Here is the input.
Amino acid sequence: MVRFSFFSLYFVLATTFLIAQETKQFSINEYTTKNNIPFVEILFNKNGGTIANENGKLFINKTNLIKYDTLTFICMGYKTKHVQIKDLLLIDTIFLDTTFIKLPEIVVSNEKIKEIIIGNKKKGGCQISGYTGTEYVLKLYAPNNNSGYLQKIGVYVTKKGYPSNPFRLKLYKVDKIGSPGELIETKDILMQASKGDEWVYVDVAEYFIYVNEVGVFASVQWLPEGKDHSKTSGAIQTMESGHILGASLSRKTDRTDLVFRKYLGDKEWKNDVEWFKKIDSNFPIPSIIGIIK
Here is the structure.
């Protein structure tokens, strides 16, 4: 029994050592302050990707790492950085430089302007969940010749899953064919509910985003659920129990440019309205609203 116990202990220690040797940890920090940057997107040069955790840490298996030539590090408010794998294996910290956000010129007026709510105010009928890194977007446009600057974005988060898990908001311009196009430059916007079954708002007035009948796209991106992500060792796309987005069901629209989704690493957006219409089914419209004035 004693001999077996010593062997068992040796086996466990040896296995733990080998796993530690196979897993490499990186820190992703801001170049100037050296502070950690949470939830940075890491794209693989072939396909797929992962997201660092809330402490700016990335755990990735070396065997998986050497399958790729380059990793790309992306985060709003920072310059995109490409690092070759041969260089990445020699370092433990990746530094990102901040970017300068150029704001448009505006005309200041004392005229009182009424606030208008655009988007989908309904929050019942279904829910939307996603893989880590998945983005779900809704077009926010101002009908009936109403237009104005975007003041706030609201997202309805249900109490299912982990409602307090942070998620990321991105804003996109509309391209020539009505799909999400160029990313609108903002800081990294992270949002978070408390108990769920609630609207969560973020102020975006500082970016002076003008919304008319063409509109803009508001994207919700699923982020890793903190306490589970450190155990994934950099898996490409692990289903996480993050927030669950409220949505309503509809089939009464002729517009096919409203709702799109994209998985982390995808080159193109998938049109959800067109897909659901092909199978003659109701389609989910995420509960995302914008307030303009």
Summary: Residues 1-20, 228-240 have pLDDT under 50 and may be disordered. The two ends are 77 Å apart (CA to CA). Residues 64 and 234 are 9 Å apart (CA to CA). The chain is about 15% helix and 40% strand.
